[in-house]
Amino acid sequence: MKVANSLRSLKLRHRDCRIVRRKGRVYVINKTQPRYKARQG
Questions:
Q1: pLDDT category, 25, cuts 50, 70, 90?
Q2: Strand pairing of 2-4 and 38-40?
Q3: Total of domains in the chain
Q4: What pLDDT was estimated at residue 31?
Q5: 12 is in which domain, residue-wise?
Q6: Residues 38, 5, 19, 33: is their CA dihedral positive or negative?
Q7: CA distance 28 to 38
């Protein structure tokens, strides 16, 4: 999982990426390609 300042560019890497908020953190999750997981903060 990558930790990044800006998740917008990470979201654009794959069309299945979703941005989710959990426990005050912002995550990018991707069901089909799990290597695109990322977290902000």
A1: very high
A2: parallel
A3: 1
A4: 95
A5: 2-40
A6: negative
A7: 5
